[in-house]
Amino acid sequence: MTAPKPVLISGAGIASLLLARSLHRSKIPFLVFERDASIVFRAQGYRLRLSAQGIDAIENVLGPTGFEKFYDACGKTGGAGFATINPLTGETLGGGVPSVRSEPLTGRDGKVVGISRGDMRKLFMEGLEENVRWSHQVKGYETTSDGVRLIFADGSKSEEGSMVVGGEGVKSEVARQLTNGAVKVYDLGARGIHGQAPTTAFKGLGEGVFRFVDDTTQPNGGKVFLITNIRADDMDKPDVNFGWTLIGSPGVIKAPNDNYTIIGAPAAQIAKSLTSHWHASVMPLFDNMVESEAAFWKITCSSPEGVPGWPNDPRVTLVGDAVHAMTPAGGNGANTAMRDSALLGRLIGEAWGRGDCDHWAGVTETYEKEMRVYASEAVKASYGHAEGQFGVKFDPENTPTINEYVTPN
Q: Domain FAD-binding: where (predicted)?
């Protein structure tokens, strides 16, 4: 008997690695191809708030033992819940939860559950290292008479696989090719900076999820918005850093050459200049920054009109940001990606058990039909949160995209 061909996964982000974990538990062969040289190549990351649905999806994939280890690594916040602080006066204003927020803040057991993107990747990849191929930038794929191959930037090709899953983010080449450019990611104009500081910098705030809104000192009616999650269990650990996300409405935050890959000190200095006039009680978040962990980025989103359709290919599909990019508002993106991985992994596993792995009959079609429903709702909610919080506006005719597709001749 010939060995079964592996599932080829493009990208080693959290959606791809959770899918890989699902395939591993079902003893389905797979290979992951990632453009970075190692898992620490882009060490900068930020904490992701996990919703109940996101946690359930992860638990379904990891199983009891694996999930226990994962959940123990998560931070849990209770206490004050969600509060708004005036950064100009330091005054706590109370709940202040935006009316557009419809998703519950808590994830499980009445707690806000969070974990850094980097820690998620490490936990999902643990034990799978031999299946990950680093320094392989995917530029597309080709179908064969009995399978599919990934094509890399240097012109080389992967071994033949039984399926390709594009999970390489908002500039996914697999998504461009599969959908003929139907999946678009829009630059909403808002800009963000992720930062970290030691727990001692947060002592004055207490436990909870806090948002700061500066909408009176920015030019042209713009605003600066910051959110942070402070966990009581970690407050007295000096070797732990808490993170925050600073976002400016369109036109407020500018970076050299509008380069959203800026990391380290240049990104940290942008954040410090934007907040230099804030109240002394909140300045420790910036004065004590771990500058090497700062990262600048653009706020992007797929069309809030929903995930588009494309002719189904039983051997190729997409997960995570490659198919439904979202703003950070509302915390929908990572949780929706977790649902993708759990759903697709389950469907592939069921087909494998039936012996349908030669052609994966109906797997991608069933997955995409269900994914379009929940992901379209999540993208719409994510955009609605960002519109209210960050002042972004989506116009399909005039909002620029970051992943324009040129149809091959």
A: 315-381
